Amino acid sequence: MLMCRQVAKALKEKRYWELPPHKRAGIRIHIALCAMCGKYHTQVIEFEKGVQHFLEEEEKGTLHEDLHLSADAGAKIKAAIHDEAEHRAE
Amino acid sequence: MAAAQHSRPDPETWVDEHGDYLYRVALVRLGSKADAEDAVQETLLAAVKGYDRYDGSSPIRAWLTGILKHKVVDHIRKASRMVSTDQFDDEGITDKFIFKAFGIPERNPPDWGFDPRKSFEQKEFMEYLYDCMTELKGPLRQAFILRELEGISTEEICKEIGVTPNNLWVMLHRTRNQLKTCLEVKWLRQEAS
Lengths: 90, 193
Description:
The complex is a heterodimer. By secondary structure, chain A is an all-alpha fold. Chain A has helices spanning about 5-15, 20-35, 40-60, 70-90. In chain A, helix 2 (about 20-35) packs across helix 3. The longest helix of chain A has 23 residues, at about 40-60. The N and C termini of chain A lie far apart (about 65 Å). In chain B, helix 1 packs across helix 6 and helix 3 runs antiparallel to helix 7. Chain B has a two-stranded antiparallel sheet with strand order 1-2. Chain B has helices at about 15-30, 35-50, 60-80, 90-95, 115-120, 125-135, 140-150, 155-160, 165-190, and strands spanning about 100, 105. The chains are: A mainly alpha, B mainly alpha. At the A-B interface, helix 1, helix 3 and helix 4 of A face helix 1, helix 2, strand 2, helix 5 and helix 6 of B.
């Protein structure tokens, strides 16, 4: 079975959901049984899963649809794109 | 079978089609409206200049987002060179840190004020997480965004922001605690209202 330090080291190197399945399984077994680090590492993993879920939702583009690029910034960027496109067409 | 090809939209439509989305992606990572707007502008101009390299193998939004994320990481790298990380020196950490050994906490952390499995499934909670991440400051923000949102390796982050791997672990630990507190406040307030 993994030791606390090995669990910590694995989670330090990669995000939990990026670890290979066999390593994730080893970590799950350890934290289910370990009175010393189990609760702490469970929270680390739950948090990382939450962030993973956040990234999936973010990619769908449905989070905070109330936040918009300001009209000024949008107009400035459009003008800059227009100028750059014209410059490249010359 | 050949991969589906995506269309090559006119760059002059990008702001209307993808500007808000890119802005939201930038804002949570940079924490400043002005920086997020600058990042969107730099992204779209870089994309116009490099449009020949877009091969249509992915949707245009994914391609633009990839460029934006590079810009965000560059921005954080530059910002981290201007911010002192002295507060995260080893001595300070050993004085204050709650771990009796690496990976073994001195005491168990308190329970969360929300059920993570249920909460993380809710869009409203995800928006609170967005807000709490946007509010993070300084080196803690930089470390968290590079590691948790961008998946940059520990080794690379340490090199970029000038901390040791153990310091980084402590920074991430503190950031998770800040986010947890922020989420609990927002979530409990929402439940009470």
